[in-house]
Every structure is written in C-alpha cells, then in structure tokens.
Amino acid sequence: MQIDAVDQRIIALLVADARASYADIGTRVSLSAPAVKRRVDRLRSAGVIRGFTAVVDPAAVGWTTEAFVELFCAGRTTPAQIGAAARRHPEVVGAYTVSGEADALVHLRAADIAHLEEALERLRAESFVTSSRSTIVLSRLVESPGVGPSSA
C-alpha cells in the first residue's frame, strides 16, 4: 500500500488525538471530512491503523514504578513463548526480543517497589527464564506515542 504525505499527516494527527473529528483533521490537511474518512477507512482496511485506544497516565492509576528487565532464556526459547508469558503478567507494558547478551527486554510498571518485586518474581518464575537483570526507571525524559520522526 502506498502511503503519501497526506496519509502520514492523518496518521500523525490521529496518534496525537484519536478523538479528533474527520472535519478537524481535514482542516489541518486541506481535505474534506468525507475525504479524510475514506483515507482512514483505507488505512484501517490495509492494517496500517490497527485500532484506536485511550492512553492512560500511569500516575493517575497509581502505577508509577517502572523497570526494564533483561531476560536470559534457556535453550531454544522462541519469541512466541516469551510473548505469551509476557501477556500473562498485567504489569508488562512491553516486551521485545533484542540483540546482545539478553534474549528479551521487558518493560514493567507497578504501584511501588514491593509490587515491582512481586511482578519480577512471577516473571522470573517462567520456566524458560534462566536469569534476569533489572534497571529501575528514575525519570522519563522523552515519551512519544507517535510513528516516525514527527508525530504531528
């Protein structure tokens, strides 16, 4: 599927505010609301836009403690196994296979250090995990839900 500059702007505007109306987006990209809707429908049917979601402030729900955990896995652990295990833990907000020494990197959020420790213990108890190395986040410096070099 070809994505032109207008599609890219529409995507960026939706990433910034998924509740923006087609008319508001149209004004910003110089298209009519029906033309924006047709483009969004096309982007959705092609799988470029997979859905719309609410972005919740972790502090507002009390999950302010974060860590990145490197997982070291046994033998021939597959990415699918790691992904399935990560989805079993509500504290996991992201899981990635990575290059380097570790097999995977997992991003955790918890209410406090005790909750984080409990989540880490459950994660480390997965049958394929041989060891882990954790880094606790002190502060967030940059965070962007956008795609590409600019999200708006």
From TrEMBL:
Which BP terms in the Gene Ontology apply to this protein? response to amino acid
GO CC terms in record: cytosol
* SUPFAM superfamilies with a match to the protein in the record: Dimeric alpha+beta barrel, Winged helix' DNA-binding domain
Single GO molecular function: sequence-specific DNA binding
Q: Which residues form the HTH asnC-type domain?
A: 3-64
Query: What are the UniProt keywords, alphabetically?
Result: DNA-binding, Transcription, Transcription regulation
| UniProt xrefs under PROSITE patterns | HTH_ASNC_2
Organism phylogeny: Bacteria, Bacillati, Actinomycetota, Actinomycetes, Micromonosporales
Looking up PANTHER family in the UniProt record yields: LEUCINE-RESPONSIVE REGULATORY PROTEIN, TRANSCRIPTIONAL REGULATORY PROTEIN (PROBABLY ASNC-FAMILY)-RELATED
Name of the featured protein: Transcriptional regulator, AsnC family
A Pfam family reported for this protein in Swiss-Prot or TrEMBL: HTH_AsnC-type
